Amino acid sequence: MQERRLPVKDFEPRCRPLKVALVVGRSRLAGTERHVLELAKAFQHGKLEVTVVVFSEGLLVERLREAGIRVRVFRRRTRFDPLLLLRMAAFFRKNSFDVVHGHPERIACLAGKLAGVPAVLMTYHLIGPQSAGIGKPGALLVLAEKIRAAVLDFTIAVSRPDAEFLVEGFGRDPARVRFIANGIGTGQVPRADKESLMRGLKIDPAARLLVTAARLSPQKGVQYLVTAMKRVLEEFPRAVLLIAGEGELEAELKGLASRLGVGGNVVFAGYREDIFELVSVSDVFVLPSLWEGMPYAILEAMLLARPVVTTTVCSEVVIDGETGVVVPPKDAGALAAAITTLLARPEVASRMGLRGRERLESCFSAERMAAETLEVYVHVLSGRKR
How many of the other CB atoms lie within 10 Å of CB of 201? Predict the structure, then answer.
């Protein structure tokens, strides 16, 4: 899909702020929720009145309130709750929202359409393994997506492959689909004292530290990173891999580390709220995913000027040989070679980290993401006006 500027010239200036409802289901702080938080914060600086609708209390709601952003929590009792649908529709109608934007909550989009909201949009944060070329969608899934698309005025995807897949795989109108890359605030970031942080984790402060922050699921490919550690340790015996995250593969990954004899150099840190601090003291950040949308974990590493080793599914973000090293998915040998190369050449790693920070500021800022998203809102509303 080619990038394009959307026609917005026919949209007349409003006498009141544009009222936008961003809707997200969970209140954790993974990729989708992080996107909503960054978008809402960036929208605060524009002529918008933003409300974030969430279906549970949690860390996201706390962060939104800390930032002074309006939040409305609707409790969802079941996966499809008809009372929730009616309550949201009444809320949207009563508050005269101009835009309802689901992430990617379909029930919210349906509620917006029932309430007569002028612009109803959805952002896909990860369509699934199909977007990575692993398989084609079945006929029933294609039909379901066409039905869902009937209530949408526009669709956004956070990765180029997903945008292309929406058109080619699900038959979406390319004029109503746009790729808008994730963005992150580029202000000051927290730093940590490496020695005290590593001692707190019972890691030798002199160790060469590799960090990955990921859900421990098949998608993230952490098993290949654990396997790669056997070869990494042959060249750098004091290297330590810190894995921040939880998931269904945790026991299996610990068993793998033990069988390979690398258990003493692999630390399973579980869920952490200090990911920024951990990544800031790392020598290399690694994300060995098998498929992705556009992971915030890599954007955070770039924000902290850390060199990144990742797979080709993230090559939209990381430029191989310039801001990090990109290897094929499922290739433990290639991961090990990339990691050892960066550990052996710290000056090259440092230079890649700095270039990554420059690339983040120019291509993946929250301000750019918000501006492009607002352009879509105005485009849809302009069409409604006509």
Answer: 14
pTM beyond 0.85: yes
Four-point Cα dihedral 128, 133, 134, 135, nearest 10: 80
Q: What is the CATH number of domain 194-363?
A: 3.40.50.2000
Enter the DSSP assignment of 73: E
Q: What is the pLDDT of residue 100?
A: 97
Distance set, CA 367 to CA 49, 166, 240, 254, 363 (Å): 16, 25, 36, 40, 10
Averaged over 72-84, what is the pLDDT?
83
Domain 18-185+365-385: assigned CATH number: 3.40.50.2000
Number of residues that make up the chain: 386
pLDDT at 5 > cutoff 80: no
Report the alpha-carbon distance of residue 138 to residue 289 in Å, rounded: 24
Q: Cα–Cα distance between 203 and 197 in angstroms, integer?
A: 9
